[in-house]
Amino acid sequence: MVVGFISGAGVLIIFGQLDHIFGIEVHSGSNALGGVIELFRRIAETDPATLVIGVATTVMIYTFHHMRRLKNIATLVAFAVVTPMVLIFNWSTVALVRDQSPIPAGLPLPMLPDLGYAQPLLGAAFATALLACVQHAALVEKLRDRKEPRANINRDFVAHSISNAVGSVFQALPSSGSLSRTAVNISSGAQSRMANVYAGATIFLMMLLFSGVIEVIPLAALAGHLVVAALSLIDLRAIRMVWAVSAIARASMVATFAGALVLPLEYSIYGGVLLSLGLYIWSSSTRIEVIQLVQDERGRFSEQPCPAKLPDRTPVVLSVHGTLYFAAFRKLETLLPDPEGSIKPVVILRLRDTESLGSTGINVILRYDAALRDQGGKLILAGVGKKLRDELTRTGALMRIGPDAVFDAQPVIFQSTESATDYAAELSGSDADSA
């Protein structure tokens, strides 16, 4: 999901800047792909001067980024070249920053937010907060291999909340970790998070001292800068890796990428989260395997395929591989050997590292225990942790299975299973004697 979302966001940023590069004003609403289609339908309306500025800026920044001496000042050099061109050649058709909005020469005065807007904006605020969290988590995943210490996501979310609460007093827009801003930082040679602090302080000083200079920067130049930055978000190596992992990973990546292009960004986030959750549940429920553990003469356990039929009066140790939760227990129930037709079968079910069975899992265990009892057999649980034992006790399952048939997990691997095996052997021996 993360790779698809980040790649989709990179393409969205590029699509969102094409109108500024071509000098064509498009109205696509929330669908960036629709805006691109409209742009190419009206390609004849392209402003040549704007296109020259946009393409020249893009090429210069991209080229300078691959030159060691100019890499960290590539954007500044490109802007210093193209901005005077507009003024020298008097290209009045080229849109400038001031055509969008004048640059204020200071900060807004503090003002308490109007709480009357809280209820109607609640839904949008929730979507914005979710988008901010997902975007930040995606950025952390994207930058994990960089040399910064591992980020504390919870602490970062608290910082987002505090910064937005303070910013609202100054009429600021909601903010979060930004894909485009991060791409700009990386492409400009940023080495740590402090780059944002220095950038903010520098921009603040420039607003106070050089707002008139900023206003004459061409929008096409800014668009070219963002296009180059967005290209760094599209990691072909990561895409190839996800593609090679599995069909599920490919489906998740493609679906999230496509959703980012055709849906509003917040809906693509919702869709990506639901898709990832659904794929996880489906894949986890199908990746359940029951194997038989057979102990040799030296006391070591080896794995063998689960038997289709349980032997008579002989303990069978079964171990479950996979994640046990409500959707997986239905599959588990079909994998357990059917006791029907066996004489006094005994099954030792190893549940080490299983912290909870839930109501669905407990019902499956109890049904299997009842099926074994119908044939004169017994179910024994081994490797039961404290949390699972407490759960079995609270639900009454422990008494139904029998406290003597539940063996707690021990620090030594297979010690609990060996104890359960000895207990099962005693049961089988006593049954044989009585027979």
Polypeptide structure, described:
The chain has 19 helices and six strands. The protein has 435 residues and is an alpha/beta fold. The protein has two domains: 2-283, no CATH class; 287-434, Transcription Regulator spoIIAA (2-Layer Sandwich), CATH 3.30.750.24. Helix 1 (2-22) packs across helix 6, helix 3 (48-64) runs antiparallel to helix 4 (74-88) and helix 14 runs parallel beside helix 15. The longest helix is centred in the middle third of the chain and has 22 residues, at 265-286. It is elongated.
Task: Lay out the secondary structure.
Blueprint (H helix, E strand, L loop, with lengths): L1 H21 L9 H10 L6 H17 L9 H15 L8 H4 L21 H21 L10 H17 L9 H9 L6 H16 L1 H5 L3 H13 L4 H10 L1 H16 L2 H22 L2 E7 L5 E5 L9 E7 L4 H10 L10 E5 L7 H17 L3 E7 L1 H10 L1 H5 L4 E3 L6 H20 L1
Parallel strand pairs: 3-4, 4-5, 5-6
Antiparallel strand pairs: 1-2, 1-3
Helix pairs in contact: 1-2, 1-6, 1-11, 1-13, 3-4, 3-11, 8-11, 12-13, 13-14, 14-15, 15-16
